[in-house]
Specification:
The chain is mostly helical. It has two domains: about 1-55; about 55-115, no CATH class. It is built from seven helices and no strands. The chain has helices spanning about 1-15, 25-55, 60-75, 80-85, 90, 95-110, 120-125. It is extended and about 55 Å long. It starts with a helix and ends with a helix.
């Protein structure tokens, strides 16, 4: 819940919106984020299980690539990002997201996609 909460607070700050925009109270805001947090946890567990079963692992090169991407996207704060990721513990924080990306990529490779023509009214029926 903590990182999701922090992300929501950061987004509110960037938009210059009050915390009340998430709900009438902090408790209500947290309650509104709970389903999303639970979904993210379930998704993480599924991806971890797939990674284990398929022996998908995060290599040092994967972490190095992720660090370089973070530094490149830091813009004017690139030097700060470089210093931050010089710490091995901070680099380690990228392991989860990198593993999720690798598993997601593996799933996309294995997915069988088919195209099906459908009438607009059928689409509306299927969406309901």
């Amino acid at each position: 819940h903590q990182s999701l909460w922090r992300a929501q607070l950061n987004e509110l700050q960037q938009r210059r919106m009050p915390i009340e925009a998430l709900g009438s109270s902090v408790e209500e805001a947290i309650a509104s984020l709970k389903p999303l947090a639970e979904r993210r946890v379930r998704l993480g567990l599924v991806l971890a299980a797939i990674a284990k079963q398929e022996k998908i692992e995060v290599e040092n090169a994967d972490i190095e690539s992720a660090v370089n991407e973070q530094i490149a996207s830091a813009g004017p704060q690139a030097d700060q990002a470089r210093k931050y990721f010089a710490n091995p513990a901070n680099r380690q924080q990228l392991t989860g997201p990198v593993l999720e990306d690798k598993v997601t990529g593996w799933l996309i490779e294995k997915a069988a996609v088919t195209t099906k023509s459908i009438a607009p009214n059928e689409l509306l029926t299927e969406l309901q």
